[in-house]
């Protein structure tokens, strides 16, 4: 009985405890909900006005617009939720907000608890753009941020909005969706037309978006549509002086210009002078922003602007980028340095745009995360709706907008529902259209609204110009006559729009916010993320980077050769032809930066056209390199040496070694090595030769340690006629040409044959072969040099652990090849069925180990991939990482996406990782758990890393690909995609033209040596070693093989053009000759320099010579009469530079100098 009472008492106690706990949890939940609601109310003031009139459905039919999905636009919903007069956000005391004032007087808000929360508040700056164009643009010490040369005190800039934080909020809302009572529908006035005492200014901008390749090739588009658009443009703008037009793509202008007579050319210039025609952007193309390297972005900008200035006398000040699939924060910096004042963007993550809409934050000063002064801010307009066609630009109602697309071509299918404007309907139609303009204007903080009027390849018919102009002029005239409507509508340009905005906001000091961050990833529909194109057609992405590498080398060699000819009064006969060849190479590379070229998102035959263009450009720059090298190595004052030169391709040597065989013969073989970096380096050189009994001699005739590896014919058979020769150079000086000799010898002393182990041997090695192949035993494979000890699983051959010897840091590092199975993936979209698996790669792997005194390697051969890891036996930077080559062939797969995943569970990076943008800067990323895995993919142009307080693991790439960190301690990169189906974005086909593709990486493990000086809000930076490896991977030593008749002699041995190498933090981006076809000598050149910043917490000693000062006279034979600091595209002079004094470069900044000879 006592037991029963005790049991009952225990049960009562337990029940009471549970009730108490549930009550406490409910209190906590209410407290949390209240604080969260307050936080939401701080961001969105409550004003409830419901407008049902805008809830209209689209019933018209039309072939799907480019990259458009049939789902109703969501931004129009956000437009129906905007307040007419939004109050400034409330600063809550619990966030300990602190107002600060910048040097320009605008306000920024920074919370002490978490710097990222500052960017959700819209205290803002003055909109004037002219105040940013100060002497500070010139650099030279005026923009010094007092940063340590290593960036250890390089902290993030304050700004009002952070895209990183907005994505965090989007992820948070998915986990904790607002309750029904928290959801607020807000809208501005829909019936009123007036906007107070200031009239509503409407700028309607006719435009035509012309892709230089997508569903057709650039040539087909030009012949079929673009040349007709441009012809009509001249005729109709002259006929209609009140009409205007925008044009962006210089590549099409240059094609069209060649066929014009002088009268028509004069008319084009007159239209520009009258302000009817504005060239916006003006680069060779409108580039993609995820995949290009900043070298290529600058180069295509210079090419386009040089053409515009030469032919039209135009210097663009506004840029218009409506079609790229997301936006990099590198581009506004480059545009700012090129002299631009404003930019317009469109394709942004739908939820992110909605949050900006609700804050009236669609116009902002786009700030670099490292630029604390804000003097590199770019004023930016983000278009509020989904696309740039007429359906999505007049206002939130697509059906209403379709009533005002007046293009009506007999026999053409269209979803437009317009009717001709006449006196009987003009009042009704004007009111309807103006209501849309009003609603769009209410998304902004002023009374000026921009209305694009165009679409892909519009205005190709003469009658459309008449239809659009006459109908809109009737509407404008009617609106403008109605004084009570208080509106002024007209045609205009971007220049007109930004001029009006500045006029109406100049008296308001705090109009626009500042914003930091980029706009990746992009999604136009829920759970459909445009992250596949980061990787699509990797063969082409590698080809573009290869042309970039050779073009830069050709630019350097051409300028050095032309400079030597001038300084030594020599005849350089190749100058004129090389000028033409360089132009072809530049324009081929520039065309490939187009946002449907490098992205891999064109039709297959168009992609082939791009590949042919890249090959043509490569052939032309190879000619430049050969002729310049002959001239530079010759001492003759009349004719350069006659020698047969073969340029070795790294990719071809790896993919097709038997096609790259160099004949040694009894006279030997000479190779010229060109170090295209502005600092000295050691480099691993690989050549395929026809002899295994050779020695290598350097420029001074001294023997060099070398190694002979077999050339594999199959996974288990080797060639007995071709061999891979590997050696490490002595230190090659900056921009130097050094000649190395390969001589046939009977008994090599410093040449060693590799020792080979394999788990699959079926080849019979001849008795006279220098190779020995043995099966290996055991469960672990180990490679070792002075820096690392790496272990590999013997059964799979994949990496299992790394030990960094200097720090004795040993961590597990597991490398895997995995496959995603596509569910909705296409050229643009990445949408897998679930996590990546290895079932597609099951089966026994062939594993080989190649061991030698110069390099040691582990090879893994599976059904679709040949994976090779190389360890270099060197104390120089080339031995500081594992070098990874992947050869991928997905021809036998369908709807698969292959990744390489590297996992190190001991690295406590949480959900944070870091990727680069365009090879220019690093940005922090976060794995958002409530978003689909594809939403966590980002572009990696050259570098990504994960880290914790002690360890950093960096992956450096030679080409752009997609990257993610989907688990703690993991980093994965997508290698290739093969997809049967279209993803519904207008392309109309899958990706089935996969080629055997090479991808190259360096894997770098580092441990921090000093964490005291690294602030928590430090700007993410690569280590010094990662920076040097990136430079070497992007610009490998150029190998030119010479025929045996050109034997080594003192005059042929070397050429060293630099008195001193540049400091390690100064990158010689380009040394580009500027000359028209008629020049026989070099008139001008452009020198582009970039000063980078390092994270020195991974270095035992600070980097050497990082003063930021550069002596421009360090080039021996480049002796200009004048040096002028210019804008980045060399269209505007900033200041003259004293020849005898060094120039100072601020950290992270890029500078351009015009050298006049």
TrEMBL record:
Coiled coil: none annotated. The keyword Metal-binding applies. Residues 528-614 form the Glycoside hydrolase family 38 central domain. It catalyses: N(4)-{beta-D-GlcNAc-(1->2)-alpha-D-Man-(1->3)-[alpha-D-Man-(1->3)-[alpha-D-Man-(1->6)]-alpha-D-Man-(1->6)]-beta-D-Man-(1->4)-beta-D-GlcNAc-(1->4)-beta-D-GlcNAc}-L-asparaginyl-[protein] + 2 H2O = 2 alpha-D-mannopyranose + an N(4)-{beta-D-GlcNAc-(1->2)-alpha-D-Man-(1->3)-[alpha-D-Man-(1->6)]-beta-D-Man-(1->4)-beta-D-GlcNAc-(1->4)-beta-D-GlcNAc}-L-asparaginyl-[protein]. GO terms for biological process: mannose metabolic process; N-glycan processing. GO terms for molecular function: carbohydrate binding; mannosyl-oligosaccharide 1,3-1,6-alpha-mannosidase activity; metal ion binding. Keywords: Disulfide bond, Glycosidase, Hydrolase, Membrane, Metal-binding, Transmembrane, Transmembrane helix, Zinc. Binds 1 zinc ion per subunit. Gene3D superfamilies: Glycoside hydrolase 38, N terminal domain, Glycoside hydrolase family 38, central domain, Golgi alpha-mannosidase II, Golgi alpha-mannosidase II, domain 4. SMART domains: Alpha-mann_mid. InterPro entries: Gal_mutarotase_sf_dom (IPR011013), Glyco_hydro/deAcase_b/a-brl (IPR011330), Glyco_hydro_38_C (IPR011682), Glyco_hydro_38_cen (IPR015341), Glyco_hydro_38_cen_sf (IPR037094), Glyco_hydro_38_N (IPR000602), Glyco_hydro_38_N_sf (IPR027291), Glyco_hydro_57/38_cen_sf (IPR028995). Pfam families: Alpha-mann_mid, Glyco_hydro_38C, Glyco_hydro_38N. Catalyzes the first committed step in the biosynthesis of complex N-glycans. It controls conversion of high mannose to complex N-glycans; the final hydrolytic step in the N-glycan maturation pathway. Belongs to the glycosyl hydrolase 38 family. This is Alpha-mannosidase. It comes from Ridgeia piscesae (Tubeworm).
């Amino acid at each position: 009985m006592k037991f029963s009472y005790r049991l009952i008492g225990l049960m009562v106690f337990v029940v009471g405890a549970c009730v108490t706990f549930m009550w406490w949890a409910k209190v906590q939940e209410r407290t949390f909900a209240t604080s969260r609601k307050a936080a939401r109310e701080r961001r969105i003031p409550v004003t409830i006005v419901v407008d049902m009139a805008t809830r209209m459905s689209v019933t018209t039919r039309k072939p799907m617009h480019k990259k458009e999905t049939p789902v109703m636009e969501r931004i129009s919903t956000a437009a129906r939720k905007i307040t007419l007069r939004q109050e400034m956000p409330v600063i809550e005391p619990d966030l300990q907000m602190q107002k600060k004032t910048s040097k320009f007087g605008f306000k920024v808000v920074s919370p002490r608890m978490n710097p990222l929360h500052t960017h959700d508040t819209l205290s803002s700056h003055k909109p004037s753009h002219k105040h940013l164009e100060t002497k500070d643009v010139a650099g030279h010490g005026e923009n010094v941020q007092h940063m340590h040369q290593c960036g250890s005190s390089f902290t993030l800039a304050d700004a009002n909005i952070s895209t990183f934080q907005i994505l965090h909020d989007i992820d948070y809302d998915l986990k904790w969706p607002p309750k029904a009572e928290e959801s607020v529908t807000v809208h501005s006035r829909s019936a009123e037309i007036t906007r107070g005492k200031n009239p509503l200014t409407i700028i309607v901008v006719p435009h035509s978006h012309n892709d230089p390749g997508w569903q057709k090739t650039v040539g087909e588009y030009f012949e079929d549509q673009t040349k007709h658009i441009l012809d009509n443009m001249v005729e109709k703008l002259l006929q209609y002086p009140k009409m205007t037009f925008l044009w962006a793509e210089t590549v099409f202008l240059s094609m069209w210009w060649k066929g014009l007579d002088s009268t028509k050319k004069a008319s084009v210039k007159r239209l520009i002078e009258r302000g009817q025609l504005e060239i916006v952007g003006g680069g060779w193309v409108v580039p993609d922003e995820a995949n290009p390297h900043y070298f290529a972005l600058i180069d295509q900008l210079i090419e386009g602007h040089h053409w515009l200035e030469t032919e039209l006398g135009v210097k663009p000040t506004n840029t218009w980028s409506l079609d790229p699939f997301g936006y990099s924060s590198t581009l506004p910096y480059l545009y700012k340095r090129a002299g631009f004042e404003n930019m317009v963007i469109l394709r942004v993550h739908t939820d992110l745009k909605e949050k900006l809409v609700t804050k009236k934050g669609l116009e902002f000063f786009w700030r670099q995360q490292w630029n604390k002064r804000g003097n590199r801010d770019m004023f930016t307009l983000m278009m509020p709706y989904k696309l740039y066609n007429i359906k999505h630009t007049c206002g939130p109602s697509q059906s209403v907008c379709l009533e005002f697309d007046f293009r009506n071509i007999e026999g053409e299918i269209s979803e437009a529902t317009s009717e001709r404007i006449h006196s009987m309907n003009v009042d009704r139609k004007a009111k309807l259209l103006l209501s849309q303009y009003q609603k769009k204007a209410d998304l902004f903080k002023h009374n000026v609204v921009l209305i694009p009027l165009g679409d892909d390849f519009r205005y190709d018919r003469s009658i459309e110009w008449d239809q659009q102009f006459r109908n809109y002029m009737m509407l404008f005239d009617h609106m403008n006559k109605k004084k009570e409507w208080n509106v002024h509508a007209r045609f205009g340009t971007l220049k007109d729009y930004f001029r009006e905005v500045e006029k109406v906001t100049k008296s308001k000091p705090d109009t626009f916010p500042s914003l930091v961050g980029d706009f990746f990833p992009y999604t136009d529909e829920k759970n459909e993320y445009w992250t596949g194109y980061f990787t699509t057609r990797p063969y082409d992405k590698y080809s573009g980077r290869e042309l970039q590498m050779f073009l830069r080398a050709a630019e350097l060699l051409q300028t050095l050769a032309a400079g030597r000819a001038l300084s030594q009064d020599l005849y350089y006969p190749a100058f004129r032809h090389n000028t033409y060849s360089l132009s072809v190479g530049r324009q081929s590379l520039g065309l490939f930066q187009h946002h449907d070229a490098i992205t891999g998102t064109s039709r297959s035959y168009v992609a082939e056209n791009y590949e042919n263009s890249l090959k043509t450009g490569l052939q032309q720059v190879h000619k430049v390199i050969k002729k310049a090298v002959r001239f530079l190595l010759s001492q003759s004052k009349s004719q350069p040496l006659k020698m047969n030169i073969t340029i070795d391709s790294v990719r071809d040597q790896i993919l097709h070694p038997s096609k790259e065989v160099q004949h040694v013969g009894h006279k030997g073989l000479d190779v010229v090595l060109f170090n295209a970096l502005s600092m000295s380096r050691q480099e691993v050189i690989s050549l395929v030769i026809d002899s295994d009994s050779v020695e290598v001699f350097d420029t001074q005739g001294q023997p060099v340690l070398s190694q002979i590896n077999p050339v594999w014919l199959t996974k288990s058979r080797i060639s007995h006629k071709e061999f891979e020769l590997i050696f490490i150079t002595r230190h090659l000086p900056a921009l130097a040409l050094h000649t190395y000799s390969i001589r046939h010898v009977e008994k090599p002393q410093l040449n060693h044959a590799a020792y080979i182990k394999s788990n699959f041997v079926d080849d019979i090695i001849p008795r006279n072969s220098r190779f020995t192949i043995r099966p290996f035993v055991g469960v672990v494979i180990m490679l070792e040099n002075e820096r690392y000890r790496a272990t590999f699983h013997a059964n799979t051959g994949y990496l299992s652990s790394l030990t960094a010897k200097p720090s004795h840091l040993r961590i597990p590092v597991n490398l895997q090849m995995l496959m995603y199975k596509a569910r909705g993936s296409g050229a643009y979209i990445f949408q897998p069925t679930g996590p990546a698996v290895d079932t597609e790669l099951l089966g026994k792997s062939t594993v080989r180990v190649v061991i030698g005194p110069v390099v040691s390697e582990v090879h893994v051969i599976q059904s679709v991939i040949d994976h090779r890891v190389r360890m270099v036996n060197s104390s120089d930077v080339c031995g500081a990482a594992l070098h990874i080559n992947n050869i991928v062939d997905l021809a036998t797969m369908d709807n698969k996406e292959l990744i390489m995943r590297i996992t190190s569970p001991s690295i406590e990076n949480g959900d944070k990782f870091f990727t680069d943008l365009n090879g220019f800067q690093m940005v922090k990323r976060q794995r958002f758990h409530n978003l689909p895995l594809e939403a966590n993919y980002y572009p990696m142009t050259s570098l990504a890393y994960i880290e914790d307080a002690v360890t950093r693991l960096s992956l450096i790439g030679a080409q752009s690909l997609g990257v993610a960190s989907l688990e703690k301690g993991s980093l994965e990169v997508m290698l290739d995609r093969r997809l049967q189906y279209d993803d519904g974005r207008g392309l109309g086909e899958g990706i089935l033209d996969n080629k055997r593709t090479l991808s190259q990486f360096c894997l770098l493990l580092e441990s921090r040596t000093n964490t005291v000086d690294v602030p928590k809000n430090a700007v993410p930076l690569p280590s010094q070693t990662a920076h040097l490896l990136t430079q070497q991977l992007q610009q490998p030593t150029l190998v030119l093989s010479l025929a045996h008749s050109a034997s080594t002699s003192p005059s042929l041995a070397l050429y060293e053009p630099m008195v001193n190498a540049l400091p390690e933090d100064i990158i010689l981006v380009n040394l580009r000759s500027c000359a028209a076809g008629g020049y026989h000598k070099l008139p001008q050149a452009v020198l582009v320099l970039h000063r980078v910043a390092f994270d020195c917490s991974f270095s035992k000693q600070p980097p050497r010579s990082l003063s930021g000062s550069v002596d421009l006279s360090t080039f021996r034979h480049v002796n200009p009469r004048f040096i002028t600091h210019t804008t980045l595209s060399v269209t505007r002079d900033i200041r003259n530079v004293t020849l005898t004094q060094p120039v100072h470069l601020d950290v992270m900044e890029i500078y351009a100098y015009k050298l006049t000879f």
